[in-house]
Structures are given as structure tokens and as C-alpha cells.
């Protein structure tokens, strides 16, 4: 009898509708590297150099941004092994600080941050695909946007179709990204070994440094390292998460930091600081100097790098919406899974029209500027919540525990970044804060939705059922946390 029950349980777990653990260590490392290495390393060097003022300081900024990102990733490794649910920021805020901060993170992520970031990366993809065909003339903006929308559509289709296909796509694109970085690093290192060091002489020109601009250099560097937290969005799909999450985070962030510093060394080996500042596309300018026979390959590799970052974002972020709906903070339709594909189809599809709309309407750079306040504010709250949770529940199981000095340092630096943005850019920061607070009334409507008029609730339930039938989705049948 017991064997029959065990067999029935195994059959339920095998055949039941749920998100399966299909992400191993290699896929996890590829997922982080593939999401972090996007357009940033090909765009941000200009901003870092402009605001740091010298070659030596810019390289130091790149290294320190890597260390700071590693500190944050280690904090999230502790959170990811302490709380076994997917959902990243949302889950950690919910577990440590309560439902309102968690809901506001969900609100601002899906209506402002995620569409803006995805649109920005997809536009970079479209630009690198289209512009080589129109050089030296300017490419049509409408065509760039059309190709960008096609890139977004491809990524959404892959993530709706299969988790396995999405992870394999990410692994493939990650290897292509690493190839692109190595292609830049090798000629730079060879030239450096042959004595081409004139651009590094007098590298630390302190007189060109202004303290009010140095934080902007860190903003540009941290943008290029952004994405280290995405693995925490899919905790329930990671095989042996207590081992693989910390290991994947450490391996990937150390590798990315080394790659980024070496890429910038290669840039400065082949270009003077003035030439780098004048370049609209640093990687393309570098290729024209150092890789004349392969210069046409670089735009292709950069576009694939952007596509990989876009795929990582669409793979991870919808899991936050999925978990939020499962907790009752979003319509239940978004907590459902395709009955055959075992993908969170409604949550993935929800992002698509928002990104396309933002691509068509524009205003991306401005939105990115004030969305960064919300992102760093809630990351700081999450790590602060981790410290508070440690104090309140010292006996809570923590398979991986980050040293206290690292957690405190990262939290203080995050709050410093937020405070500095309030001082340096009060207009955009104030708008970001106002947009975040628009979620407060929505939260109370969501929590007290049983008080809504019965007719409105019946209409909403009817629409949800019809959408469930149309999309062929069902509630999770197997608990995965």
C-alpha cells in the first residue's frame, strides 16, 4: 500500500503542472553572465571615463563596481538559500519587511523599471543589427524600432515555448558573448605585451577628478554589472539551490569583473582617452583599429549580446509576477502555468505589450534615469531586511551566510547611492518616488478586493476564466518551495 502511495506521489510530481527544476550549475552561471553582459560593457566605458577623468581611475571604478556587485550578489545568495521561493526582490521584501514594500517593488518593476530596461536593451540590439547596413548614413529610426520589436518577440516566444529552450538559448548566447569579449581582450593584451603603454602613462591624473562627477562614473559602471540578482528570480527552478546559487553567483561575478577590467585595458591600449570619448560605439571603433579583418563581426556579436541580456530578463522577471500573483498580490491568472509547456505563460506575455508600447513611444533614457532610484532603493531595503531578519530570527536555517561586514557595507553603499541621487537629481528622483507611491492605493484595492461591487468581481472572474481557457493554463499543482 505504501509503495502504491509513493508511486502515486511520484507520478503526481512528474505529471503535475509546475515549474520544474531544470537549471543546473552551468545553466545558472550562463544565466547570470548572459544577463549581466549586455550592451553595458560596449556603451558604459565612455561614461565611466568621462566622469572619472583619467584612465587609471576609470579602471579602478570598473574593479570597484565589480567588487560592489559581488557583495550584493553574495547578499542575495544568502537570501536565495534562506527563502526557497522564487521571486527575487519581491519575495525577500515580503519575508523580511512585509507585504506593502513587496507589492510596491512588484508595481514599480512591471510598470516602469522592467519595460524601460528591456526597451533600452532591445533598441541597442536593433541599432547594432541595422546601422552596419546604412553606414556612413544614419539608419531609419522606424526600422531600428521594428527590428527591436522583432527581437523582443523572438525572446518572448522562446520563453513561452519552453524553459529548456530558453536556458539553452541563454547558454549559447553566453558563449558568444564570452567569445566577443575574448576577441577584444586578446589583441589588446598582445599590443600591451609589445610595449604599447603610452595611454597608461600618467594614468592617475587627480587634478581632473571632481568629486561631484565621480558618483556618475560608478552609476555607469554599476549599470554594466546590472543583472546579478536574476538567478534569485528562479530559485524554485534551480537544481540543488543551496549549492548552485552561491557557487554560480561567485563564479559568474568574479569572471565578469575580470573580463570587464581586461576589456577596458584593451580599449585603452588601442585608443587614447580622447578617441574613446569621441566614439559613439566603443567596441566598433576598437574593432576598426585592432581587428580590421573582423570589424564587421563585432556589431553582430554585440547585437547577440543584447539579445542574451533581453532573454535573461524575460526569463527571470516574470517569475516575480508569478510569485506575486501566487501570494494574492496580483490577479491569479498570472500565477498559472501552461499545462503542456510548463512555462508561466501569462506572466511572460504580460510584459510584452508594455515593452512594445514603450519602444514605440520612446522617452526611454529619461525613464531609465529615474527608474534607477527605485531599483537601488528596493535592493537596499532587501539587504537591510536580511540584516533585520538575522537579528530577529537567529535560528532560521541559512545554508549560505555572507560575512556581516560585506552585508553592512553593501547596504550602506546602496543607501548612499539613493541619498546622493536625491541630492544630485531631485527632479527625476522625486518623480520616481511619486511613481512608486502610486502603487499604495492599488495595494489596498488588491488587499480589500472582496469589498468591490459583486458585479465587478463576477465580471473580473468571468474574464479570468475565459483567458485561462484561451491560454491553456492552470494553477500550480505541485509545491516547489
Report on this structure.
The chain has 481 residues and is an all-alpha fold. The protein has helices at residues 2-15, 25-36, 40-52, 55-82, 89-96, 99-130, 141-161, 163-193, 214-225, 241-270, 273-278, 282-290, 297-326, 345-361, 364-392, 404-424, 426-437, 439-447, 454-471; strands at residues 336-338, 473-475. The longest helix is centred in the N-terminal third of the chain and has 32 residues, at 99-130.
Tags for this entry?
481 residues, mainly alpha, two-stranded antiparallel ribbon, 1% strand, disordered N terminus
Give the overall shape, derived from the CA principal axes: globular
List the uncertain runs.
1-11
Main structural class:
mainly alpha
- Oligomer class: single chain
Number of strands: 2
> From the alpha-carbon coordinates, what is the Rg to the nearest angstrom?
23 Å
The fraction of residues in strands falls at under 5%
Helix content: over 70%
Query: Alpha-carbon distance between the termini?
Result: 27 Å
Provide the residue-averaged pLDDT.
Answer: 83
Count the DSSP helices: 19
Order of helices and strands: HHHHHHHHHHHHHEHHHHHHE
Strand order of the largest sheet: 1-2
Query: Biggest sheet, in brief?
Result: 2 strands, antiparallel
Amino acid at each position: 500500500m505504501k509503495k502504491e502511495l509513493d508511486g502515486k506521489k511520484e507520478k503526481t510530481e512528474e505529471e503535475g503542472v509546475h515549474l520544474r527544476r531544470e537549471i543546473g550549475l552551468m545553466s545558472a552561471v550562463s544565466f547570470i553572465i548572459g544577463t549581466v553582459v549586455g550592451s553595458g560593457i560596449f556603451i558604459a566605458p565612455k561614461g565611466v571615463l568621462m566622469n572619472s577623468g583619467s584612465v587609471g581611475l576609470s579602471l579602478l571604478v570598473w574593479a570597484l563596481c565589480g567588487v560592489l556587485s559581488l557583495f550584493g550578489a553574495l547578499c542575495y545568495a544568502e537570501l536565495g538559500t534562506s527563502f526557497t521561493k522564487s521571486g527575487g526582490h519581491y519575495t525577500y521584501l515580503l519575508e523580511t519587511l512585509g507585504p506593502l514594500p513587496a507589492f510596491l517593488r512588484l508595481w514599480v518593476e512591471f510598470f516602469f523599471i522592467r519595460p524601460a530596461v528591456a526597451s533600452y536593451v532591445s533598441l541597442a540590439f536593433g541599432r547594432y543589427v541595422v546601422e552596419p547596413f546604412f553606414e556612413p548614413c544614419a539608419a531609419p529610426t522606424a526600422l531600428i524600432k521594428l527590428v527591436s520589436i522583432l527581437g523582443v518577440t523572438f525572446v518572448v516566444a522562446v520563453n513561452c515555448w519552453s524553459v529548456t529552450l530558453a536556458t539553452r538559448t541563454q547558454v549559447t548566447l553566453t558563449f558568444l558573448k564570452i567569445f566577443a569579449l575574448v576577441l577584444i581582450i586578446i589583441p589588446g593584451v598582445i599590443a600591451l605585451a609589445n610595449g604599447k603603454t603610452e595611454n597608461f602613462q600618467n594614468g592617475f591624473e587627480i587634478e581632473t577628478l571632481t568629486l561631484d562627477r565621480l558618483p556618475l562614473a560608478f552609476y555607469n559602471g554599476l549599470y554594466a554589472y546590472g543583472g546579478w540578482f536574476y538567478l534569485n528570480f528562479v530559485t524554485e527552478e534551480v537544481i540543488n539551490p543551496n549549492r548552485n546559487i552561491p557557487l554560480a553567483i561567485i563564479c559568474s561575478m568574479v569572471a565578469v569583473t575580470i573580463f570587464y577590467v581586461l576589456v577596458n585595458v584593451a580599449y585603452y591600449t588601442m585608443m587614447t582617452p580622447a578617441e574613446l570619448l569621441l566614439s559613439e560605439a566603443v567596441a566598433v571603433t576598437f574593432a576598426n583599429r585592432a581587428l580590421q579583418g573582423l570589424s564587421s563581426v563585432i556589431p553582430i556579436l554585440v547585437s547577440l549580446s543584447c539579445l542574451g541580456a533581453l532573454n535573461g530578463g524575460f526569463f527571470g522577471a516574470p517569475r516575480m509576477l508569478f510569485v506575486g500573483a501566487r501570494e494574492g498580490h496580483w490577479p491569479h491568472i498570472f500565477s498559472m502555468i501552461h499545462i503542456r509547456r510548463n512555462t508561466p505563460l501569462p506572466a511572460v506575455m504580460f510584459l510584452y505589450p508594455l515593452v512594445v508600447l514603450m519602444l514605440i513611444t520612446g522617452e526611454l533614457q529619461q525613464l531609465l534615469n529615474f527608474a534607477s532610484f527605485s531599483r537601488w532603493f528596493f535592493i537596499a531595503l532587501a539587504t537591510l531586511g536580511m540584516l533585520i531578519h538575522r537579528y530577529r530570527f537567529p535560528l532560521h536555517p541559512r545554508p549560505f551566510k555572507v560575512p556581516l561586514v560585506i552585508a553592512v557595507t553593501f547596504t550602506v553603499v546602496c543607501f548612499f547611492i539613493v541619498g546622493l541621487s536625491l541630492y544630485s537629481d531631485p527632479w527625476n528622483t522625486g518623480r520616481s518616488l511619486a511613481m512608486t507611491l502610486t502603487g499604495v492605493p492599488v495595494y489596498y484595492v488588491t488587499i480589500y478586493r472582496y469589498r468591490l461591487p459583486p458585479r465587478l468581481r463576477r465580471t473580473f472572474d468571468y474574464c479570468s476564466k475565459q483567458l485561462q481557457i484561451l491560454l491553456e493554463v492552470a494553477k500550480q499543482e505541485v509545491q516547489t518551495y
